[in-house]
């Protein structure tokens, strides 16, 4: 059983974390370059937020939502 968990450790430490080791080494040269992955995730999240707000505005402008206080069963 111990060999199984050591194999999992070896997989992550020796293989799957190699890109993160590269980013850690890059941080000494360029903070922005080392955080490019974080910037990409922030951009994707911001784009999704803008898209969602546009969709909500579209439904709000069409008056498709029932805004009666008793419209939802959990408000009764």
From TrEMBL:
Entry keyword annotation includes Transmembrane helix: yes
Keyword Transferase: yes
Keywords associated with the record: Glycosyltransferase, Membrane, Transferase, Transmembrane, Transmembrane helix
Parts of the chain that traverse the membrane: 36-53
GO MF, one annotated term: glycosyltransferase activity
InterPro entries: DUF6341 (IPR045922)
Protein name per Swiss-Prot or TrEMBL: Uracil phosphoribosyltransferase
Source species of the chain: Aquimarina atlantica
Source lineage: Bacteria, Pseudomonadati, Bacteroidota, Flavobacteriia, Flavobacteriales
């Amino acid at each position: 059983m111990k060999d199984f968990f050591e194999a999992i450790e070896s997989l992550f430490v020796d293989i799957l974390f190699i890109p993160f080791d590269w980013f850690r080494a890059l941080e000494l040269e360029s903070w922005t370059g080392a955080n490019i992955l974080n910037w990409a995730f922030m951009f994707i999240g911001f784009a999704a937020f803008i898209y969602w707000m546009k969709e909500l505005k579209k439904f709000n402008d069409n008056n498709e939502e029932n805004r009666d206080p008793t419209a939802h069963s959990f408000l009764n």
